[in-house]
Write a structure and sequence with these properties.
Strand content: 15-25%
Radius of gyration: 18 Å
Mean pLDDT: 88
Number of helices: 4
Strand order of the largest sheet: 1-2-3-4
Shape: elongated
Helix content: 25-40%
Largest sheet: 4 strands, antiparallel
Length: 146
C-alpha cells in the first residue's frame, strides 16, 4: 500500500508536469501506473458504490466513496423536484486514509450544499428539504451507550 503523502506527491507531480494532464496520453499512462483500474481517464473512481441517505417524494440525497491503494475519496449529490447537485469521487479532490473519514467528510460537504426554501409560499418544499437535511445530519450522530 502506498502512503497518503507519497500518493498525493506523485499525483500532484503529474499534474504539474503536464499542462493538460486530464487529456495527455503520457499523463494518463503515469496515473494508471499509480492508481490502476480504480480510476477512469479523468481521475474519477470507477465502481464507487452509492449510499442513499434519503429518498422520499422526489427528494433524494446520496454519497459515494471511491477506494484505491487503501485511500478513499468522496462524491455526493442531491435532487429535488426543482434542483440538484452532484459530483463524483476523484483523485483530484481530498483523499482520506479511512472510509469512515471520507464518509463523514462527504456528509458534511453534502449538508453545506443542500438547498433552503427561501420564499414563504414554498412551505411544502421547506418541509421536505428539512426532512432530508435531518435524515442526512442523523448519519453523523454518534451512537449512545445509554
Amino acid at each position: 500500500m502506498i502512503d497518503l503523502d507519497s500518493l498525493i506527491e506523485r499525483t500532484d507531480a503529474i499534474r504539474e508536469k503536464y499542462e493538460h494532464y486530464w487529456r495527455d496520453e503520457q499523463a494518463q499512462a503515469e496515473l494508471k501506473a499509480i492508481w490502476g483500474d480504480a480510476i477512469n481517464a479523468n481521475g474519477v473512481f470507477v465502481n464507487a458504490p452509492e449510499e442513499i441517505l434519503y429518498d422520499r417524494d422526489g427528494y433524494k440525497a446520496w454519497i459515494t466513496i471511491g477506494t484505491a491503494n487503501g485511500l478513499h475519496a468522496f462524491g455526493c449529490g442531491f435532487q429535488t423536484p426543482i434542483e440538484g447537485y452532484g459530483n463524483a469521487p476523484s483523485i483530484w479532490d481530498e483523499l482520506f486514509e479511512t472510509r469512515s473519514e471520507a464518509r463523514t467528510a462527504a456528509i458534511r460537504f453534502l449538508l453545506e450544499r443542500l438547498p433552503e426554501a427561501k420564499h414563504p409560499h414554498e412551505h411544502a418544499q421547506r418541509e421536505q428539504v428539512e426532512r432530508m437535511r435531518k435524515a442526512v445530519a442523523n448519519e453523523l450522530r454518534q451512537p449512545s451507550l445509554f
